[in-house]
Amino acid sequence: MEHIGSSYEGDRKNGRMEGKGEYSFPTGTKYVGEMRDGTFHGKGTLFFPNGAKYEAEWENGIAKRETEKYTFSDGLEYENEEWPYCDVLDRRFYKEICHGLKPAGRSQLTNEEPPKAIPLGWYDCGDGFYNPKNRVVYDYEREFLRNADDEEHEWIMTNCRKGVSDYE
Description:
Layout lengths: L6 E7 L2 E9 L5 E7 L2 E9 L5 E7 L2 E2 L5 E3 L5 E2 L15 H6 L23 E2 L4 E3 L4 E3 L5 E4 L2 H10 L1 E2 L6
């Protein structure tokens, strides 16, 4: 069933999404693949607004873990087994591994260079900016992504970079 703000283009059977199609979410994420009885079923890929994608074999709306493949926006492919990046012994970013570390005193804060400027008092939570006053996560173009629950709020406040002035 399609939800408010979403759209579907593709095959239908008995008024339901079935066969091959493209389902677009209000957040800008798009699923392209096979559907059955209104759910993701068969081979399909989720494309995210930041350029990343998640490919999997789906069964009744649930991705089978053994078939999943996540490709980050910079081209790095996540593999379930023998993941060589950002482990206990080597905390470098993928770009640091490909292009070398920066000189001492010029830390790389994110995998994006230069890192995005964080609005004053907000936090960079990885997929967008978090405003702790209204507890909303916005994408990097300042479009609504989601409301943060208590657990996510605490995690962001504890772990994420904050936009500060030069005087803080």
